[in-house]
């Protein structure tokens, strides 16, 4: 027992001697709460010592601790301080020897920091004794952009079978990743989460909460609906709709038309938004998936998808909203879309007074309503092929180059459709004579006639 007491006293005596030789030095840094991009952060290094201060150095630690970047130094010998960052990145301010302020923090400032304090060795006055502390700075960034689009659009209207419809909500610029959810007409949608199969999966099924099953499927049922009268042709037999095959559609006979001396716009004559020929016995099931994609700036891009069986009768004019929650936001961000079939396309023909040889453009200028998703446009010529010999053309604009006189009075049909409905609009082309072309023809005829007379 006496030996142990003597040993303990010896250890304590040695410690006291070392303390007298080197002095004591402790460094502590208070933890930092998460901060938002643009705020000001103060890094405070607390130290206690009875020695003479040599320097205080702040480091930013990167690459998992393998690299320490010196950002600020206080030199006690000369009572000076300086930043080690380039001029264009210099933002550090010394508040008091051991305290540094970082104004307007960025996502790139996120990470660990270390404070190193050095004091002079009492024994030699040449060596420096070092101690350090560390702190982690968490920088949050709220999403700076959210948007909602329809996946796989533009797409046609389907009358004879149910089809899946997917809304994609994208939130950019968030750190950490925000939470995303959907609402319909202001009410939170109850969803079934699933994981999209990755590349290389063979025969994998969606991992839904309610077990393995096809994502969405519905049986067709023609017995519970009467055939729409607009599906019947003049002879009472079923006809092909414009959006299925416009060139074979039935149209009522028009009285003989006399061209007017100006380009004529025929008002909308056929609106072919039919009731779907299937019946849904239950409310739709909404399937939800969420994908996080890390970005080079440290933020996370989030893509949330909402998929269900579209019912044009119920979903037309439905308001869907995507809301994003983030700890850096005091209230959720929101963007919304209203599902709507196209109605009453407005067509513009240029030039308004087309002459033989002109290039004529017929363009869809807009609709009577806000349409979502973006429609699919198909152009056909009633009773014949288009000028280039094709049966139909896709796109928002139809171009007829160097129109001949034979196209005078021809009728063109624009079919605009999206998964919620379809509508057709017609425009008649009136082609006037071109005086300059007639003059050139007369000059050529007179020239050849003169040569023939010789």
Task: State the helix count.
Answer: 3
Q: At the third CATH level, what is the topology name of one domain?
A: Immunoglobulin-like
Evaluate the radius of gyration: 38 Å
Q: Please state roughly what percent of the residues sit in beta strands, choosing from under 5%, 5-15%, 15-25%, 25-35%, 35-45% or over 45%.
A: 35-45%
Please state the second-level CATH architecture of one domain. Answer: Sandwich
| Structural class label | mainly beta
Contiguous runs where pLDDT drops below 50 for at least 5 residues: 11-20, 87-95, 198-275, 448-454
Molecular shape: elongated
Q: Please, what is the average pLDDT?
A: 77
CATH superfamily of one domain: Immunoglobulins
| Major sheet strand order | 6-5-4-9-10
Biggest sheet record: 5 strands, antiparallel
Q: What level of helicity do the residues show?
A: under 10%
The end-to-end span amounts to 147 Å
CATH class division of one domain: Mainly Beta
Number of DSSP strand runs: 29
